[in-house]
Amino acid sequence: MSAPTILILCTGNSCRSHLAEGILREALGQGYQVRSAGSKPAGYVHPLAIKAMAEIGLDISAHRSKHLDEFLNGEVETVITVCGNADQACPMFPGQVNRHHFPFDDPAHATGTEEEQYAVFRRVRDEIRAVFGAYAAGRKDEQGR
């Protein structure tokens, strides 16, 4: 049996979904395929998202922004949306059993100096870490891991 795929969706696939993908992949460990995509991909991963993750020892610099259509032909067991727009635009995926919506502020819309913007990225990263850490713990409990 192949590892279940968990797909994390947001609109631009440049910040929140990549933060969540990196954090959830680390929290779950082996046995799961964790991916992210967007309904309207920005075409890049935000540099401040990469920096915020590096600060906690997670490297997402090789991630790329991709469209959710890339996953329509695969088996996706769980879809998690992290913004309202993606939640509304989310299609059903083959094999989908679970769907969750965990909304977070979009740090890409932060204003001010770079340091003020970075503070928003760090806050959202930490919020995502708390929510997805709890989600991962629940999944592990279900599996008896």
UniProtKB/TrEMBL annotation:
PANTHER family in the cross-refs: ARSENATE REDUCTASE
Protein name stated in the entry: Arsenate reductase
Keyword hit for Electron transport: no
Keyword Nucleotide-binding: no
Phosphotyrosine protein phosphatase I domain residues: 4-138
GO biological process: response to arsenic-containing substance
Keywords: Arsenical resistance
